[in-house]
Amino acid sequence: MKVAIVYNESSPEIYNKVKEDLKKVHFEPNFDLEAPDPISEFNFMVEALEKEGYQAYTLNIKDDFFTFIKDYEKNKPDVIFNLVELYKEQPKLEMNFTGLLELMGIAYTGATPIALGTCQNKTLTKRLISTLNIRTPKFKFIKNMNQSFRLGLNYPLIVKPAYEDASVGIDNNSIVNNAKELKKRVEYVFNSFQQPALVEEFIEGRELNVAVFGDKELQVLPISEIDFSEMPKNLYPIVSFQAKWDPFHEAYHKTIPVCPAQLPKEIEDEAKEIAMQCFRAVGVRDYARVDMRLSKKDNKLYVLEVNPNPDLQEGAGFMRSAHQAGYSYSKMLSLIVELAYKRKSEIDKRFRN
């Protein structure tokens, strides 16, 4: 079977520059300081799939979907391992690439266009899962600065861009404690991201990552927790953009993953059941991660968001849980490919008719 690992990095040379810019930091890192290098990760995925017996290669479409079409016509891969996360620097166009795959009748991994679009809209996701009586932080959707900022929410609040993912637009200043700070942060979101702001009550407590694997039959993997105990007092206990992606920032080194999370059995079972309900409600498939908080105040679980097609780097959240469940990195990639390949016969039949 031939697998094309397709991604979109319009300026891949930027990662070489980041490596050159490595510098000393003013804190003690918890692990080796390395620049992010997703290109190497994609190549590592090729090696892992080849280990499982697949023919595999990478394709960077570089903001040009015709590059993909030409490659597909030439190489005819059986499955597209879809790692395209944005197009022309617009996350909302992520779903459109899978729409192209649907129109061409191509089997691919991960979420469908509808599921990607739903999860991209944080407000829509929250409203959808709320219909299932799943708790999510109380929130307001702010479209412009002329709206009333008497929101009826309890401070502290957290302000997020409404249509981003991967913690884009979330940093230490996202937590606000009064109306003045709230207005300032909302205005920042409008100006920096040209989109509405989602304002939520900030849930103080433990942060849990619940990974779900499968399509028609689901498996919830061991729950991972983000340990904030080493965070300095000047940083809020949140998984900010810097905590996820910036190895030069202290938060990157002080948000420490623990898997499996040590939880009471009833909380663990409830978290897993909620994760499966969310997975099905928003229509994701193959692999996803549901982020929750276990409230310090009332010991209840609150869903923060549903992440389709989460990061698959070895050691990242989803793969950390997969490893704890007994899957090697290469085996889990193989299982994801097999889920997509099983859909191929249905796609071929539909397009023949």
- Bin the helical content: 25-40%
Quickly give the CATH architecture of the largest domain. 2-Layer Sandwich
Counting DSSP E segments of at least 2 residues, the number of strands comes to 13
Q: What is the overall pLDDT average?
A: 90
Low confidence ranges = 14-22
What does this structure look like?
The protein is α+β, with helices and mostly antiparallel strands and 353 residues long. The chain folds into two domains: 285 residues, 2-Layer Sandwich (D-amino Acid Aminotransferase, Chain A, domain 1), CATH 3.30.470; 63 residues, ATP-grasp fold, A domain (Dna Ligase, domain 1), CATH 3.30.1490. 38% of the residues lie in helices and 20% in strands. The strands form three sheets. Strands 8, 9, 10, 11, 12 and 13 form a six-stranded antiparallel sheet that branches. A four-stranded antiparallel sheet has the order 4-7-5-6, with helices on one face. Strands 2-1-3 form a three-stranded parallel sheet, with helices on both faces. A hairpin with a 5-residue loop joins β12 and β13. The protein is globular and about 60 Å long. It starts with a strand and ends with a helix.
